[in-house]
Structure prediction request, 162 residues.
Amino acid sequence: MGKKHVSETPATALLKARAVAFTEHTYDYVEHGGAQHSAAVLGWDPHHVVKTLVMQDEAAKPLIVLMHGDRSVSTKNLARQIGAKHVEPCKPEVAQRHSGYMVGGTSPFGTKRDMPVYVEAGILALPRILINGGRRGYLIEIDPQACVQVLAAQPVECALPL
Prediction:
């Protein structure tokens, strides 16, 4: 089949425990390649490849934002919608501490620390998405509604063009 099996991650363990169906997609990870790279390699529209971003508010409380691969986050709009004064991306080592995943392999599922999850509303309208499965070079294809069912993700509107 050409797909290599990836050993279980905290993300896939959680999805299996919750009976969420997913398919695995592996690719050769490229440093700073991001969603654009994985979309190109896997033949997906980057709009359907979802980035998992660990951010923090003014009190340094972490949160996760799920964003289209071809968009960036308006931290100003996000902060306003979630009632924060200010939101900014976490430094990589801080993000890693909160999520338990290496940057570039961060999944919103099975994080070390429970964090509120916000999902760009347009993602929920897509039939299927690719999202990180908890390892670099490893994406899983799922129904975006799983983000709401498993993570209690709150829809927000904070997408900006890249």
Notes: The longest strand covers residues 49-57. The longest helix spans residues 34-42. Helices lie at 10-17, 34-42, 75-82, 92-99, 121-124, 145-151. The two ends are 35 Å apart (CA to CA).
